[in-house]
Amino acid sequence: MQRDSIDFGSMKVGQLFCKQLFPTLLGMVFSALFVITDGVFVGRGIGSDALAAVNIAAPLFVFAAGMGLMFGMGGAIVASINLARGKERVANINATQATLVSFIGMTLVSILVMAFPTSVARILGAPEDIIELAREYLIAYAAFAMFQTALCVLTFFTRIDGPKIAMWCMTISTVINIILDYLFIFVYKWGLTGAAVATGIGEIVGCILMVAYLLRYSPRVRLGKLKFSWKSIQLTARNSGYIIRLGFSAFLGEAAIGVMMLTGNYVFVSYLGTNGVAAFSIMCYFFPIIFMVFNAIIQSAQPIISFNHGYAAHGRAQQALRLALIATIATGLFFLVLTILLREQIASLFIADHTNYAWKYAVYGIPFFSICYVFFGINITTIGYYMSIEKSRLSTIFTVLRGIILPVICFFLLPLWLGVKGIWLAVAVAEFITFAVICINATCKRI
Fold first, then answer.
1. Rounded (10°) angle between helices 48-84 and 357-369
2. Residues of 168-191 as b/e, b for ≥16 C-beta within 10 angstroms?
3. In a domain, 225, yes or no
4. Is the dihedral of CA 115, 119, 121, 124 positive or negative?
5. DSSP string, 376-404
6. Which of 384, 303, 414 minimizes the C-alpha distance to 21?
């Protein structure tokens, strides 16, 4: 098999990391634009109620992305380890199984959502005044959700060969999404359905490009045919179980954003009504950009860590972790300062009317919410490291702590003490406590 210019076993770790990081980062930024573009066009083209409705439905696309991260990262870790051990055919099978199983799984979830959209909207906390808007968006989005999952999975395997192909595929997808968003919302007036369809078409194009590359042009990992004998189905189930176990923390990490959104929606509705949810939705649109940047950092380090872990070169794996942590801290501080300084401009991207209560609530709350960035980045990077060296139990414990247990507790308890400010600070407090626990663990036991 032809080898590309990236050698995870012998090239300098710093050079490898930089070579992975910058194209991966650009690709992630374009992925984030998928999210933020919808928010800008929905907020300005349809209104703040539509913005709130999309945020009500947000846990669904967070779930779809979480499925993609779970099968993508878990499958990429297994494939990278098998490549390090010279098992190229097994790595190809891993990639194919992860892509197919995740697509089928998300399709089943989408069918369920489309069958009961009103019930799902109510479960997600939609107030009665926006229930129809939330229902409209859920139906249209669910029709394409499986392609979001597949796009995420395929990105991981495409990136094993080098991140540039993934970057260009995401760039093309995002440009298509932006153009169609404008046409469907402002020109054809399709409302929330238009926003969902525009995103779906962009994701389908990205999937087609990556599948074509992995079928014919990839020098390292390729998609292939799977057998459908009973023995092959059993093998697929076993491999999928191992992939899920390794990638489950990535799923929980993404699901944690869904928990944050869902819990935050309930609490904001209780304290500030629909305008509060609309204000919170601005950070829920902006936060995935921060998440994807940190994801780009750990995903750039992941193949280096996993390959060298499989090769028993543990010093190189830890060197990659150190570089990822340095990049994470610098990036987190940069975004913290930038968000605080530009809080009014960020709110204005989504809500043009500065007399709107949603705009005022957002400007007030953004600085408090943004305190979480540095701790969030360190936690995500450390958890990703544990996943990459097959310590799935430890990564799962930290993910459940930072993503589910602590945010829910903080969202409900802090407002009792600090009022509305406590809602905005809930995520930052949860991330800080998790950071402290990780530091204690690292002190007591060498990473």
1. 30
2. bbbbebbebbbebbbebbeeeebb
3. yes
4. negative
5. HHHHHHHHHHHHHTT-HHHHHHHHHIIII
6. 303
For residue 324, the one-letter residue type is: A
How large a percentage of the chain has pLDDT more than 70? 94
Are 280 and 268 in contact, with CB atoms under 8 Å apart? yes
Q: How far apart are CA 107 and CA 131, in angstroms?
A: 24
Range of the domain at 113: 13-444
Cα angle: 80, vertex 85, 90; to 5 degrees = 65
Q: List the helix and strand counts (H, then E) for the chain.
A: 16, 0
Summarize pLDDT for 123-177 with one digit per residue, the tens: 887 888 889 999 999 999 999 999 999 998 998 888 777 667 887 888 898 889 8
Give SS3 for 342.
coil
Q: Element (H or E) spanning 268, and its range?
A: helix 230-310
Alpha carbons within 13 A on the beta-carbon side of 358: 26
Q: What is the pLDDT of residue 390?
A: 72
Secondary structure E strands in 57-161: none
User: How many domains, the chain?
Assistant: 1
User: In sequence order, what are the residues at sequence separation of 6 or more whose Cβ sits closer than 8 angstroms to the Cβ of residue 289?
Assistant: 29, 32, 35, 36
Let me know if residue 90 belongs to a domain: yes
Please check whether residue 192 lies inside any domain of the structure.
yes
Residue 297 in tokens: 């950092």
- DSSP letter string, 20-74: HHHHHHHHHHHHHHHHHHHHHHHHHHT-HHHHHHHHHHHHHHHHHHHHHHHHHHH
Whether 153 maps to a domain, the answer reads yes
Q: Which residues of the chain have pLDDT under 70?
A: 1-10, 27-36, 162-163, 312, 445-447
Distance, in Å, from the CA atom of 325 to the CA atom of 298, rounded to the nearest integer, reads: 9
Helical pair 343-350 and 357-369, crossing angle rounded to 10 deg: 140
Tokens for 142?
């669910």
